[in-house]
Amino acid sequence: MTNSPPLPGERGFGYALVAASALILWLAFGISGLSSASSAGAFPMAAAAVMLVSAIGIVHRNRRRPHSPRPPTTAPRSVRTGTDILPREVALYMAILIAYVVSLEHVGFLASTSVFLLVSLWQLHRRSAVTLLAVAIGVLLTIQMVFGTLFQVQLP
Amino acid sequence: MPQALEYFLMSWTDPSLLGLIAAGTFAGIYIGALPGLSVTMAVSILISFTFTWDVNAALALMGGVFCGGVYGGSRSAILLNIPGTPAAVATAFDGYPLAKLGEAGKAIGVSTVVSVIGGYLGILVLAIAAPMVSEVALMFAPRDYLLLAIIGLLLVGSLSGDSLAKGLFAAALGVIIGMVGLDPLTAEGRFTFGLVPLLNGISYVAAMIGFFGVAEALFQIRQLGTAGVKQDVSRILPAWRTVFRFLPLSIRSSVIGVIIGALPGTGGDIAALIAYDQAKRTVTNPSRPFGQGAYEGLVAPESANNAAVGGTYIPMLTLGIPGDAVTAIMIGALFIHGLKPGPLLMVETPHLFWFIVGGLVLANSFLLVFGLTGIRLFTRVAECPRGILIPIIILLSIIGTYSIQNSMVDVYWMLAFGILGYFLKVYRFELGPIILGVILGPLMDVSFRRAILSQEGSTLGLLSDLVSHPISAALTAAAVLLVLNQTPLWRRLRRPGRVAAL
């Protein structure tokens, strides 16, 4: 059990979990109400109740942990500040990922994947343009060969 | 029996199956060794690529990856102090100090040999125990399955991660994810909001790949900067003397490993930690103090986590209850191939069981060969930059998810679970219980309602059943003990000074 101060945003996250659990419990109640223990909604309600109770437990524990605006330096470097919960690179990459998945449907696999690979390699790997292009083409060709031919998987 | 032997040797005599197991084991070692790639991730992505294959071929490949991956995690734990897989966390305690002392080669050699010893022992227990368990399991009533699933979720919730509350939350979240869609008994919609894509439920493969592929990849971006340390690895073949010296401890740890593995919900990661703790308490004169490069601290977790592989197959094949996250995914794979893991699996498809056992023996033999050779190649692969790995993982996750039923809806789910999983990981939630919940949820739901219906809808009747039948009563007692052991009351009852191991 850790008694270190909560991570930035951890309390808020706990409240969000409580709210989400309550919503799910309410939805589960809507399935078949309290009609009988063997109804379709009974088990989902039980699971949602477990979610709610444990989420409340999590919030309770967060509240009992010492509150300090500056967590001690013993915390790993990566979790010391608020931006480190969602560092800029991760947020940016999430956005790239969502854009890629959305574009898959509209632009097609080959075009959007090439762009995605180039952008993400440029984001994460940061080498010369030639290297990036070579890696991207290599990965794309391998994927096309291995999955298109060997596994015979349908690509999006 | 000769029939069983024939099935057992099936993968040994078929060149393509032999090749798949070899390739799987080889790939598994590297997947396990590369920080950022995990066995769970690899197996969940593999399901989607192999579901058009013959079931034997798919199981051969996944079994190889499983065995290789659990072992492979020790490599990076020893060389880089980064456990390649959760099962190798305990390996780093003494493995990395050994590497710092310049004994990385010997450490890898010893860990390879004891891993294989553990692996064989685990398989032996699987081969002997599974047929017996499945016979007992034929007597299980729906309520017993419910109890077993509850025990599994309680175990994984309480033993792994930050706190019981977080473990239970994750497990219950998984159960809810597994509930979405049409109710299997009454065909009522649950959490469907009247939307057609939700009627069929959320694809569990999408959830698995989201939580273990995408979330893990996003999490890795946070650690892009950490670079590996180059180690001098020369001679790795251990002397016979060394092997014999650690054999008793290895066998003892393997027994712990296989038992922990066989418990529903707990796998190699927990087995390794418990075996390490046990070795620390029982070995009186270690080669060096524990934590400073004791070979005993390497032998115990490495034997245990590989022995746990055989153990985790026991509840999966005999009860249809996963032994850990990887076997939860394999159950998903069996479902996709139209098989129903459970007590009838041994009766209806005995060839499958002996085929799996034979394949695992083979995988462990390959492990010995690949583990003790090819170390140069390994150091090259381990240097593969994460900046390249992450986009590849994402790409494989997307292609894999899409290929299950050629549906973009699955890809969106995978993405959503990936992002949710990232935040859960950041706030120290374990993702393993979620997947166990997804697989166990529907099983629990159906078992619960069958149990109630068999009592004509009386909850009281079910409760009295839980304590009046011997099997159910034992399982109920175990579940109650598991809950009690998390309460302050239990801590007060325990002897002072002996703190819980985990």
TrEMBL record, chain A:
| A Pfam family assignment | TctB
Presence of keyword DNA-binding: no
- Residue intervals passing through the bilayer: 12-34, 40-60, 90-123, 129-151
Record InterPro entries: DUF1468
Keywords (alphabetical) are: Membrane, Transmembrane, Transmembrane helix
Does the keyword Acetylation feature in the UniProt annotation? no
Q: Which positions fall inside the DUF1468 domain? A: 14-156
Protein name from the UniProt record:
DUF1468 domain-containing protein
Source species: Azospirillum oleiclasticum
Question: Which taxonomic lineage is given here?
Answer: Bacteria, Pseudomonadati, Pseudomonadota, Alphaproteobacteria, Rhodospirillales
From TrEMBL, chain B:
Q: Where are its TM segments located?
A: 20-46, 53-71, 108-130, 136-156, 163-182, 202-221, 352-375, 387-405, 411-427, 434-452, 467-485
Q: Which PANTHER family match?
A: TRICARBOXYLIC TRANSPORT PROTEIN
Pfam hit, one: TctA
Q: Tell me the organism's taxonomic lineage.
A: Bacteria, Pseudomonadati, Pseudomonadota, Alphaproteobacteria, Rhodospirillales
Q: Which residues form the DUF112 domain?
A: 18-436
Q: Which organism is it from?
A: Azospirillum oleiclasticum
Entry-linked InterPro entries = DUF112_TM
Keywords assigned: Membrane, Transmembrane, Transmembrane helix
Q: Give the protein's recorded name.
A: Tripartite tricarboxylate transporter permease
